[in-house]
């Protein structure tokens, strides 16, 4: 009964979870969504669409935030200034290449669009390269989850496979919650330290 409820949860909210996670660093969720596609709980087109839209919306939001409020945020909050300082070590001359690979540089996916926005990188150019990058990222990461599902089925068989998928999704939800909680706590501590 619990397994059936969890499967229903994945079927009902799986695409929303993929979309929300893709707004940030959603690799783990996308791999797990690929597993869920392999298991038949989600469709590949639904997962890919949710991930592409989430990735584009998230990166474009960071870019526009950098473009219109970046200087103000960097001056006001240490969180932004530390991230911007870290990203200064990244190549400046090949920003287009940086946009294409930013999704594969852990920890920089949200800050690179922000910094490009501050640097007054052309918005139309960012949108084009970001779209290409989102497609490549979704295909590579989402497909790897599907392939991983195939390998698991070969190794474990269909027995307990659905239970395995559910345990992974529950673990992921717990991990996502803890990550958000840590981020909020760290942000609050930084603000207290600045005051």
From TrEMBL:
Residue ranges occupied by any VTT domain in the UniProt entry: 27-146
Pfam family, one: VTT_dom
Keywords (A to Z) from UniProt: Membrane, Transmembrane, Transmembrane helix
Cellular component terms per the entry's GO annotation: plasma membrane
Membrane-spanning residues: 17-39, 46-65, 97-116, 128-149, 161-180
Source taxon at top rank: Bacteria
PANTHER family: ALKALINE PHOSPHATASE LIKE PROTEIN, INNER MEMBRANE PROTEIN YOHD
Name of the protein in its database record: VTT domain-containing protein
Protein source organism: Candidatus Zambryskibacteria bacterium CG11_big_fil_rev_8_21_14_0_20_40_24
